[in-house]
Amino acid sequence: MSLLAVLLSSLFFFSGIQVAAAAAISAPGCSSSTWSWTSNKQGQSACTVAAYMLSSCSGGSFTVAPLASSSQAYPGPTGGSDDADLCLCNTITYSLLSACDACQGSEWVSWATYKTNCTSVQAASSFPNPVPVGTSVPLWALIDVTVEGTWDPITAAIVGDTPEAGPGTVITSQ
Ligand SMILES: *[C@@H]1O[C@H](CO)[C@@H](O)[C@H](O)[C@H]1NC(C)=O
Q: Which residues, if any, are the signal sequence (predicted)?
């Protein structure tokens, strides 16, 4: 094989990996009709949108594991390397994961509890990276939850889905 052929095949090899990584988003189904208003226009649940947002700090892949029971909730960082993950330590991901708790029949934790182990926290209603390709963030996820101290589904439902923050949008609080 010539050097060029080797180079080309490695390019294809790496671009193949990139495509696979971009698609490696996994989240619970979250089909409860009670919470269908939390989905975006593409029909992605809050769990799926959370996984996309979290993937932007982890090389394009992320798995939000299903809760094992309705007594569980997503806790925020748990005292490991994710304590410094600003994709986790922000109010937008907190809101999305709280809705993801809700649609699996669970209660969600308060913002104060969620961020307990965060070494630093992104400014309220802002996100460290542009919205990744493949998803859009519902407007309700941009509510400043530090005001009430918790995700509030009633306020969220009133605010609703649109306008969504689409791919490439840098979400910053004003
Ligand atoms: C914070 O981290 C500790 C481990 O250092 C863990 O036991 C605890 O559950 C975490 N708290 C929250 C709210 O996630």
A: 1-22
